[in-house]
Amino acid sequence: MYRFYSKGDATPSKKAKRVYPVPTHRVTIVGEVEQDTLKLAVARCSHRDKFVRKVGRQIAEGRLKKGNIFMYVPLTEGQLTTEKFIEIASAVAQELLSIPGEEKVEETKASAELV
Known about the structure:
Elements: E1 2-5, E2 10-12, E3 19-21, E4 27-34, E5 37-44, H1 53-66, E6 71-74, H2 82-97, H3 105-114
Antiparallel strand pairs: 1-4, 2-3, 4-5, 5-6
């Protein structure tokens, strides 16, 4: 099983000279290969939520086990490498993070399955 966690944006703090992550949407993507297909399940963090890897992983893995698959990716090059998974998951995360509201996730899911 493969796991991917998107990174938050970083911005300078007003009080200190350090750089702190800005509260932002974060995405956890879990993937599993079955035959010649990569199945992806996603958990997206709201801007009101604190991002916790363990919680995101549990939600995404639960969705994968229940069959709530976000996207199917056919594998043409045979075996999936970790680098290829990161590339695919990064692209999916970027697309999800560019959507302003959570209500649009279903629209993206429908359009992603058509690709």
